[in-house]
Write a structure and sequence with these properties.
Number of helices: 5
Low-confidence stretches: none
Distance between the termini: 18 Å
Radius of gyration: 13 Å
Helix content: 25-40%
Order of helices and strands: EHEHEHEHEH
Largest sheet: 5 strands, parallel
Mean pLDDT: 89
Structural class: alpha/beta
Strand order of the largest sheet: 2-1-3-4-5
Length: 114
């Protein structure tokens, strides 16, 4: 069975880059441009993993994470935070949010695909 991945990022260039990196791996990819769209998407079509941008207008990645974890239908979906921040406070915050990990932007393909 092919894994379904939802890419959530408000920057089209980042979304396209992630798609280019992941498509050769054979994943079924879908995208959302904001937190609200991501929550609607996973309620309509469950996914195996979410790549979730931290800094977005409207709902940020942490708010999306809280909504995912607070819903019995989505609380087991693993998510990885995508962030340009790489300090101890950011690490503590994504761990507290329940993220399976984080990938620092700009994204390195080898790190992303491991």
């Amino acid at each position: 069975m092919t894994a379904r991945i939802l890419i959530v990022d408000d920057d089209d260039n980042n979304t396209q880059l992630l798609q280019i990196m992941l498509a050769p791996e054979g994943y079924l990819l879908s995208t959302a441009a904001c937190g609200e769209e991501a929550l609607t998407s996973v309620s309509e079509q469950p996914v195996d993993l979410i790549l979730l941008d931290v800094m977005m207008p409207g709902m940020d990645g942490y708010q999306v994470a809280a909504a995912l974890k607070g819903n019995v239908a989505t609380n087991t979906i693993p998510f990885i935070m995508l962030t340009a921040m790489d300090d101890d406070g950011a690490r503590t915050r994504w761990q507290s949010a329940g993220a399976a990990g984080f990938v620092k932007k700009p994204v390195d393909r080898a790190e992303l695909c491991q």
